[in-house]
Amino acid sequence: MSVNSALRHLAPDITHRLELRAGPTPRDIRHGLFQALGLPGEPPARPIEFDILLKETLAEEFRVLVCDEAQWMKKTGFEFWRHLWDDKRTNIAVIFAGGDGCYKVLRREPMLASRIFIWQEFTRMSKDEVRATIPAFHPVWADVDTALIDAIDKQAAHGSFRNWANITTHVLAGMKKLNLKQVDEDLVRWVYSKIGGM
């Protein structure tokens, strides 16, 4: 979510996200790029021709390529990314995003790790960050008592913005269903019954 939000702000027109299965092979990455870049026609049948097409396309203009769930990538997948990035003609930034274990997986590949410009870890929000961020995140939280926000964070959100987004969606649905105008403890208990927060 943090990566997507930052890229929507910094590079909205040049970002391409790949939809890849777990443990993608170079073939999967080629086809993912073909689809993400919106290339016309059918993908080339032979890897050499496919790589030439991708390199020519990736040399046309600067692009940001997002590879999510990078912790599932295998050595051959990383080698293929390195192969594309190392080509003198390509003009790309590759973002490897992932959850638990992503850093360790990437560090295990020294040829790749040595080419990574910046490592960015997104950690859970502190209590003070939650108090500052959540009321600004959505108007539904703007007038909610700080003690209730603290309780929700401790019991269900745990400093995770993704959890807060999920809780907010359920809060809005609950307000509509129960015809409520503001967030209260009864509504929060109703939300917990939907998400298993307690």
Task: Provide an overview of this structure.
With 198 residues, this protein is mainly α. Helices cover 55% and strands 7% of the residues. The chain has ten helices and three strands; from the N terminus they run αβααβαβαααααα. It has helices spanning 2-10, 26-36, 47-60, 75-86, 102-107, 110-113, 127-137, 146-157, 161-178, 185-195; strands at residues 15-18, 63-67, 92-96. Strands 1-2-3 form a three-stranded parallel β-sheet, covered by helices on one side. It is elongated and about 60 Å long. The model has no long low-confidence stretch (mean pLDDT 87).
Structural class, by secondary structure, is mainly alpha
Strand content: 5-15%
Major sheet size, sense and barrel closure: 3 strands, parallel
State the low-pLDDT regions, or none: none
Q: What overall form do the CA principal axes indicate?
A: elongated
N→C terminal distance: 24 Å
Q: Work out the radius of gyration.
A: 21 Å
Helicity range of the residues? Answer: 40-55%
Please tell me the overall pLDDT.
Answer: 87
Strand order across the largest sheet: 1-2-3
Series of secondary-structure elements, N-terminal to C-terminal: HEHHEHEHHHHHH
Number of helices: 10
| SS elements, strand count | 3
Characteristic terms for this protein:
mainly alpha, 198 residues, single chain
Summarize the structure.
The protein has 198 residues and is mostly helical. The protein is 55% helix and 7% strand.
SSE topology:
Layout: H1 2-10, E1 15-18, H2 26-36, H3 47-60, E2 63-67, H4 75-86, E3 92-96, H5 102-107, H6 110-113, H7 127-137, H8 146-157, H9 161-178, H10 185-195
Parallel strand pairs: 1-2, 2-3
Helix pairs in contact: 2-3, 7-8, 9-10
